[in-house]
């Protein structure tokens, strides 16, 4: 049994980690829920106490999940390292650090295992980079790829609970008035799409787009040319990615390659169906829809719960692999 701490337990990712740990029956001895302020969290008909992070002693934990942003983890990382606990970081603070493995449990845990066990720090990728890396790694086992073109349609919960609240507030107000001020994003998002996530770089790409490209290539250890556009859409939970990959893999072989990944659900021609962003909310799998190979380009529409399958589950699966190694060495 293991002592688990969740930093940011009251947020969207933190709550989802709590729920996934519970569902997957993670062997927990003591659970420490931490946030900025003391509060109660209701989950599964139970009420959990969430304590203040700044009063916590990390020596009590074996594994720490960070579900807050980079500034928080940078402040506490020294204490966590000193305590000897494993850190699984969901923020973008450490993802591109050359000494920290950026891990998708199904793709590259094993090749990073020694480093993870030695340094006890793992970064978990961005919620678009993660599913894209899983799909590309499955295809790369079967074919050569040099270029990828993708557009990510990201729900408002991608920025946390305040994005969700902002969309709900704007949507209600916009039904009553034509004059609306943005509630959270830089422009009104209710009934609209914002084709910019992060800041705009000098080449007019965005920081989010650059982040996704760098993270994918780090995970799959490749140098793919990636053309990425990110847009924020008025969906509460669930991201979608429209992916186009020039390659000579047939549709049938692509389907087989994708089906070989446990976390992927292929909505194949036989079901003649697709899963929307909204429908993906609460589900564990990454849905790959409308796979087609036309004029030398493999195309697909990917939908998934950004909080759960794009975030929390990967963290918990990494923790499961860590405890397997701990059990085998003890
Ligand atoms: N949302 C996604 O789709 C997604 C996916 C993958 C990764 N991520 C990453 O996961 C992290 C969490 O995202 P989220 O969406 O869960 O955000 P969120 O809903 O806004 O939750 C933020 C959490 O951080 C806590 N927090 C903020 N400042 C703190 C401080 N100074 N000390 C202690 N706790 C503090 C908050 O506690 P209080 O309640 O006390 O304020 C809350 O529990 C971010 O780094 C994000 O980039 C998000």
UniProtKB/TrEMBL annotation:
GO terms for biological process: amino acid biosynthetic process. The keyword Oxidoreductase applies. It comes from the Bacteria. Its EC number is 1.2.1.11. Keywords: Oxidoreductase. Signal peptide: none annotated. One of its GO terms (molecular function) is NAD binding. The active site is at residues 127, 239. Residues 3-115 form the Semialdehyde dehydrogenase NAD-binding domain. InterPro entries: NAD(P)-bd_dom_sf, Semialdehyde_DH_NAD-bd, Semialdhyde_DH_dimer_dom. It is an enzyme of class 1 (oxidoreductase). Belongs to the aspartate-semialdehyde dehydrogenase family. This is Aspartate-semialdehyde dehydrogenase.
């Amino acid at each position: 049994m293991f002592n688990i701490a969740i930093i940011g337990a009251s947020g969207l990712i933190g709550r989802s980690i709590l729920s996934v740990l519970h569902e997957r029956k993670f062997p927990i001895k003591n659970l420490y829920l931490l946030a900025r302020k003391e509060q109660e969290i209701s989950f599964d008909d139970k009420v959990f106490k969430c304590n203040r992070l700044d009063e916590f002693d990390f020596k009590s934990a074996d594994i720490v999940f960070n579900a807050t942003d980079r500034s928080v983890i940078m402040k506490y990382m020294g204490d966590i390292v000193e305590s000897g606990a494993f850190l699984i970081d969901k923020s973008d603070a450490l993802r591109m650090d050359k000494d920290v493995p950026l891990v998708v449990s199904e793709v590259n845990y094993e090749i990073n295992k020694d480093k993870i066990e030695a340094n006890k720090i793992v970064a978990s990728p961005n919620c678009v980079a993660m599913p894209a890396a899983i799909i590309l790694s499955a295809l790369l086992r079967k074919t050569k790829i040099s270029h990828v073109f993708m557009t990510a349609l990201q729900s408002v919960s991608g920025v946390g609970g305040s994005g969700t609240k902002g969309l709900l507030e704007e949507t209600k107000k916009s039904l009553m008035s034509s004059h609306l001020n943005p509630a959270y994003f830089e422009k009104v998002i209710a009934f609209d799409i914002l084709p910019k996530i992060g800041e705009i770089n000098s080449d007019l790409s965005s920081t989010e787009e650059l982040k996704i490209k760098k993270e994918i290539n780090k995970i799959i250890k490749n140098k793919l040319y990636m053309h990425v556009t990110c847009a924020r859409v008025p969906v509460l939970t669930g991201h979608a990615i429209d992916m186009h990959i020039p390659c000579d893999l047939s549709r049938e072989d692509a389907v087989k390659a994708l089906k070989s990944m446990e976390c992927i659900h292929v909505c194949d021609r036989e079901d003649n169906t697709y899963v929307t962003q909204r429908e993906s909310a609460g589900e564990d799998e990454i849905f790959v829809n409308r796979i087609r190979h036309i004029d030398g380009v493999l195309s697909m529409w990917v939908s998934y719960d950004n909080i759960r399958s794009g975030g929390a589950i990967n963290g918990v699966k990494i923790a499961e692999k860590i405890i397997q190694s701990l059990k085998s060495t003890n």
